[in-house]
């Protein structure tokens, strides 16, 4: 019984160690996987009227997390013409969020791109390391 309790407390400590002040949720993928879906929020640093939420898989017992991720961004405040004028308008945009996913240089990045034709901000999530010919590993 004491061993079971000690294992449970140790597992909880490992899971709580990964929490951040920007973490909105942590959803377990199962007791025996030791993987969670983490949901973090961030405000676009140059367009503070936009709040984004990034979901990614986190596995504290592996050297590299899977590259699967999702991002959604919504307008939560005012967006001024001055803010839009101050962002990168190039076709590849600029990185507004980074999160290390590996000790081997894999990083989750969120890039802001301005769609000039539709006057829309678009946020794109991707992993920076290719494995086995695919960004999805």
Quick structural summary:
This protein has 137 residues and is α+β, with helices and mostly antiparallel strands.
What labels describe this entry?
alpha+beta; 2 helices; elongated; disordered N terminus
Topology overview:
Layout: H1 2-17, E1 23-28, E2 36-43, E3 50-58, E4 69-75, H2 81-85, E5 94-100, E6 107-115, E7 120-127
Antiparallel strand pairs: 1-2, 2-3, 3-4, 5-6, 6-7
Care to describe what's here?
There is one protein chain. By secondary structure, the protein is α+β, with helices and mostly antiparallel strands. It has two helices and seven strands. The strands form two sheets. The chain has a four-stranded antiparallel β-sheet, with no helix packed on it. A hairpin with a 6-residue loop joins strand 5 and strand 6. The longest helix is centred in the N-terminal third of the chain and has 16 residues, at 2-17. The model is unreliable at 1-19 and 133-137 (pLDDT under 50).
